[in-house]
């Protein structure tokens, strides 16, 4: 079937379409129905089915006689390690660690927070939770203690799994002091912290005995004493994981992914979008702390019976801008998936990709990019370099897999610079204006998706059905609001132009400007502030803070800036990459007090802008223009 007929079938007969897709999964109890609309607008998938996600990712491949196939390749230029795990070996480690979690009292539905760098134990911990029917919540290592504490308070885990730390090119990041501070800041549901000791980073479970009122277990000792645990069947609708993502307010949103719909979507997307099959090698150069890592470092490739690469390093500097090409050639990678920022970083250092000539990239079928807008220059550069399809695809933490893509496993569609191509079968994407009226081609508007969303997309927000409905489903009844704006061209290609809210995307990392503003506002000299995401050649966007001082406050500007930068780093984390502060005498606002952040961003980015008629004081626009002139 081609793209058009597959899409038509997914719309005409979603029950038949998705029940057929569900046959790619091994069920303990096979579902008899696909979508359950009894609680609309909250939909559930495969509601009477039962399965275990870990069984589908590991056991069934071993049972099918593929135990000797490589499941996971770990490559870490930062610690100088390379290691492969067969499906049998990975299963053994996961079953053993599931035994450790069971010894710590974890069972079906319990939450486990995982705060780990890109090491194999992070994957083991995620799959071990899935094996027990427990719910993992992975927190990216670049977040500071306060952000971690906010997630502990919301998810209420009984166990944290961590490591002594991670290695960034410029420094060693010690995790254990962050864990202790987060435990002290949080409400205290955690009973046990399990620590994988890394020789490269100081700190261990033993040294922390008694700290923060919890038990500290050493990973290896606990694994030595544990009995391997069998997979526990759960309902398809039971949560597999919670993944926190930035909302428009400071409070992160806990996106809930179910077991059944997720497994089906992963299996379907591996074949039909990425064209990756058992034995193929897929390398997703992201982090397990992000949705891209959940879906296509861990679950997608393993559910498909493919080989996944876990790379602990950067695109440049570990050791050079040839690192990506080395990994592709060393492991015969068929599909590489990364963020546009990574390519821009490589291009900046090695504009003609001279380092790529040293490696054999013949195994590569396609490069997939997502996480932020793919600018046409980078697309053109990568296409010329690789002479292979460079596939932009658009998705979000909430959807868990691509909303728009060129589904290579179905049909090779012509690609267009600047567009993530067409809606993936299962997603009915429309563009509407602020009144919900459908827009004509080439007219920009809100990108919305008709309900129900396909399997594998968020089922709700953690303990937040109302927040889910309020944030995503109430603006345009019957549709999911993506928060992105864009348009279709006449041939149906989608163009995603940017967010309609206060979320920014820095180096493919989704951040809330609202949470940065909350931090800046705490400074005693700051009367009011606005953080906006301005265009950045490398990272796509970078946050810049505009602050108005309290009257009578006369701090030295450079000292104030350093204090504010340190506060954001301390309270949100290094990942916020907040480095720029501009002191201004006023912020442009509407008469109702809403700061005109979009207009500010347009001024700073040199775009055309319209001064809204509701502006309180037009002079404030000049203030921003003048601040640009000051550099
Ligand atoms: N743990 C701790 N700190 C981390 C971290 C982690 N896992 N990841 C990033 N950081 C830190 C960095 O060390 C840096 O700290 P610094 O201010 O002390 O230098 C800070 O967070 C900002 O990081 P980043 O924005 O990534 O910038 P960078 O200059 O270190 O690296 C790139 C630039 C382009 C190499 C890097 O951003 C990159 O590889 N991007 C790819 C994006 C990606 O994979 N996104 C995933 C979504 S698909
Ligand atoms: P995240 O939830 O971190 O995956 O971020 C999702 C957001 O990143 C989307 O809502 C978009 O704003 C942006 N994004 C992701 N992929 C793309 C893409 N291919 N093109 C444009 N924007 C993208």
UniProtKB/TrEMBL annotation:
InterPro entries noted in UniProt: ACAS_N (IPR032387), AMP-bd_C (IPR025110), AMP-bd_C_sf (IPR045851), AMP-binding_CS (IPR020845), AMP-dep_synth/lig_dom (IPR000873), ANL_N_sf (IPR042099)
Domain Acetyl-coenzyme A synthetase N-terminal: 3-57
Domain of life from the UniProt record: Bacteria
AMP-dependent synthetase/ligase domain residues: 63-452
Gene Ontology molecular function terms on file: propionate-CoA ligase activity
Boundaries of every AMP-binding enzyme C-terminal domain copy: 516-594
Family: Belongs to the ATP-dependent AMP-binding enzyme family.
Protein name as catalogued: Propionyl-CoA synthetase
